[in-house]
């Protein structure tokens, strides 16, 4: 049982702490972001080296290294976006009255360069692991990418909980692209697909005859997918998800007020 419990616990703790650390750094004064980004870029270089160095190792430990390093690469993507260094050509609120494709195009322009950076990160990991036995860095990155994209599309289409307190002050305009809605047509598809993927990974981890490397890596991936599914649930369920990272979010009640009002107004205009 420890062969499954330890990787799962590790994934939960690293996911929770790394998310909180990024939120903490994003909400620090703007004057600190340059130093944080420089340090993060140094850690990114180490993570990419670790991915390449562990790619040929099929031990249980290499699965932990691959997962951790891929999470660092993803964390750099999130930091660069939410600190405003790699975002998109549009840095202002949604145009009043924008609907349909015009609204989507405006929203996409807020993160165009960010999406390109995500693709570049994925290609870098693919190149570092090509033809090697340890692909868990690549799979970790793809899970994070896919579930993040799903969450952002759901936020755009409309969810009950916007979690606007996660947005730093300088990105408050992003709230205008979000909607407060009881449900949207994509959400059931997203949760069902994520649930099925989680189940498939659990079954793969429990399969007979697999190596310790595969047990560790698949257990970590299954836990990560379950956490991503849970995060989707937070978008609709009346649960205070921000409380999980209260230590990294200053003045939670005040942070969410302005973005939530803008988003609610955008939803009213879009109907």
From TrEMBL:
Keywords, comma-separated and alphabetical: Membrane, Transmembrane, Transmembrane helix
Coiled-coil regions listed in the entry: none
Signal peptide interval: none
A Pfam family recorded for this sequence: DUF3623
TM region(s), chain numbering: 6-25, 32-52, 58-76, 112-130, 136-157, 186-207, 219-245
InterPro entries (alphabetical): Photo_alph_chp2
Name under which the protein is recorded: Photosynthetic complex assembly protein 2
Species assigned in the record: Methylobacterium goesingense
Taxonomy of the source species: Bacteria, Pseudomonadati, Pseudomonadota, Alphaproteobacteria, Hyphomicrobiales
């Amino acid at each position: 049982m420890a062969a499954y419990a330890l990787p799962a616990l590790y994934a939960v703790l690293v996911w929770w702490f790394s998310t909180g650390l990024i939120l903490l750094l994003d909400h620090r004064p703007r004057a600190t972001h340059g130093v944080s980004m420089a340090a993060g870029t140094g850690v990114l270089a180490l993570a990419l080296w670790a991915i390449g160095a562990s790619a040929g190792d099929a031990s249980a430990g290499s699965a932990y290294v691959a997962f951790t390093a891929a999470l660092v690469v993803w964390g750099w993507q999130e930091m660069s976006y939410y600190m405003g260094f790699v975002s998109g050509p549009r840095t202002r609120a949604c145009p009043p009255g924008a609907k349909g494709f015009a609204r989507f195009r405006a929203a996409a322009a807020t993160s165009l360069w960010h999406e390109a950076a995500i693709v570049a990160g994925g290609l870098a990991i693919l190149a570092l692991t090509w033809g090697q036995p340890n692909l868990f860095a690549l799979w970790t990155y793809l899970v994070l990418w896919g579930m993040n994209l799903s969450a952002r599309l759901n936020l755009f289409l409309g969810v009950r909980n916007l979690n606007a307190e996660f947005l730093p002050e300088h990105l408050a305009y992003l709230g205008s692209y979000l909607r407060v809605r009881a449900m949207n047509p994509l959400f059931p598809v997203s949760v069902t697909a994520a649930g099925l993927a989680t189940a498939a990974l659990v079954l793969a981890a429990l399969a007979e005859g697999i190596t310790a490397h595969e047990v560790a890596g698949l257990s970590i991936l299954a836990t990560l997918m379950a956490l991503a599914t849970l995060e989707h649930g937070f978008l609709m369920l009346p649960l205070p998800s921000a409380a999980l990272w209260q230590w990294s979010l200053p003045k939670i009640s005040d942070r969410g007020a302005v973005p939530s009002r803008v988003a609610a107004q955008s939803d009213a205009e879009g109907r």
